[in-house]
Amino acid sequence: MIFKIIFTWWNRQTFGTFLKTLFFGKYVGKDELGNKYYKSKKNERWVVYSKNIEATKITADWYLWIHHTVDKIPDSKETKFSWQKKHLENQTGTSNSFKPVKISKNNLKKKYDTWK
User: Is residue 82 in some structural domain?
Assistant: First the structure.
């Protein structure tokens, strides 16, 4: 486990981030995906991902906080609107990625009439 932390950056956090979190980080919260968010006295903000590192795993609320757009720490108990969807990470390259419907030439409708 120690070798994994020291020699790999893609496994949650680097050794430097581990030390920074240990000595200077103040835990501020956790999102529904398990990512933990920290803040320093100099108002530096960072995230320690729960599993593999993927920037799109940060929810919209925490994204605004980590980029200093809002100062209020997001609360998971806040009510969401019924039209808001649950956050998903980037689905590109997976079986859940968006695949547009293929249109054949026979089914293609013209939006205009050509001159004759």
Answer: yes
Is position 4 within any domain? Answer: no
pTM for this prediction: 0.71
For residue 38, the enclosing domain spans 24-108
Helix (H/G/I), strand (E/B), else coil: 6: helix
The pLDDT tens digits of the residues spanning 24-43 come to 989 999 988 889 999 999 99
Q: How many domains, in total, are found in the chain?
A: 1
User: Dihedrals φ, ψ of 17, to 5°?
Assistant: -65, -35
For 40, residues 6+ apart whose C-beta sits below 8 A from its C-beta are 20, 24, 25, 26
Q: Which of 61, 68, 54, 52 is nearest to 87 (CA)?
A: 61
User: Residue 2 carries which side chain, given as an amino acid letter?
Assistant: I
What is the per-residue pLDDT across 94-114, written as a single tens digit (0 to 9) for each? 888 888 877 666 666 777 777
Question: Is residue 79 assigned to a domain?
Answer: yes
